[in-house]
Write a structure and sequence with these properties.
The chain has 281 residues and is α/β, with parallel strands linked by helices. It has two domains: 186 residues, Glycogen Phosphorylase B (Rossmann fold); 79 residues, Rossmann fold. The chain contains ten helices and twelve strands.
């Protein structure tokens, strides 16, 4: 994080952190939110710009743009692709980022909006692309998903070429981004919020879920989507059980995004798999 902080000190604030969504249950969105909190605590003027915010409370300002997307849940993937072509979206973004001296873009289409701002006579604005990666096309199942992800990867490449600096959240993603664009990036690992370093009484969780103290628990925490490979985890767990380890349980924590995928997972699972749902902090 100190690399990013030093950059901002050199170029100055206000800082705009741009991320397509701000959902408390999304890992990437939480990284963007924590980034804003840390920078704000260091005295920087910070604002988050997003299309949709579900954080009920925030110590930093979060501005929603593109309010016309409300109620169009089924069209959101399409809107995400074409957002930079919608004049109202561009106008709202440019207005809210009018005084920014540093823009940190997490994901397309915010990368496109940052590029547009740079081309509107704001060349001195520091444009930072914060690379969380895009899931490989091979991780998707139907043709529409593959086409969508192909477009998303291509658009990410095009719209991050103007970035002044690129930070990746892992060495692997830095290497993948260099293969995609030819640009190098520095690695900044996601840090751990101090509140999650607290040692909890495991017996309370076992009692709540009805897990005996002698059972071994495998834990998955994250979005429940195909490209995370949750189905492969369940298959691996069942192979372990088939070897005679009947005291192994699999606890899956996270938001389920696709009904069809949820059905697939439940068909694969046995009575040793627990789908907990979204867990609060």
């Amino acid at each position: 994080m100190y690399k990013l902080v030093n950059l901002i000190r050199r170029y100055g604030d206000p800082v705009v952190i741009a991320n397509p969504t701000m959902y408390p249950f999304s890992g990437i969105d939480r990284v963007a939110h924590r980034q804003a909190l840390v920078l704000s605590s260091l005295g920087f003027d910070v604002k988050i710009i997003t299309f949709e915010n579900l954080f009920e409370k925030s110590e930093v300002e979060i501005v929603e743009i593109g309010s016309f997307t409300k109620g169009l849940l089924s069209l959101k993937p399409i809107i995400k692709l074409i957002a930079p072509l919608i004049p109202k979206v561009v106008k709202e973004f440019l207005r809210n980022a009018e005084n920014a001296r540093t823009i940190i873009a997490h994901h397309y289409p915010m990368t496109a909006l940052a590029s547009i701002l740079k081309s509107k006579g704001r060349e001195k604005v520091l444009y930072v692309y914060y690379n969380h990666g895009n899931a490989p096309i091979k991780c998707f199942y139907n043709m529409s998903e593959k086409v969508y992800q192909t477009l998303l990867i291509a658009l990410t490449k095009i719209t991050t070429m103007k970035a002044d600096y690129v930070f990746s959240v892992s060495k692997y993603l830095a290497e993948e981004y260099e293969r995609l664009t030819g640009k190098k990036s520095d690695v900044i690992y996601n840090d751990i919020d101090e509140k999650f370093k607290k040692i909890y009484d495991k017996s309370l969780i076992r009692d709540k879920l009805g897990i005996p103290p002698e059972d071994i628990v495998l834990l998955y925490v994250g979005r429940i989507v195909p490209y995370k490979g949750v189905h492969e985890l369940i298959e691996a767990y069942r192979k372990v059980r088939a070897l005679g380890y009947k005291n192994v349980r699999l606890l899956i924590v996270g938001k389920e995004y696709f009904e069809w995928y949820s059905r697939v997972l439940r068909e694969l699972a046995d009575d040793g798999v627990i789908f907990y749902g979204v867990a609060s902090d």
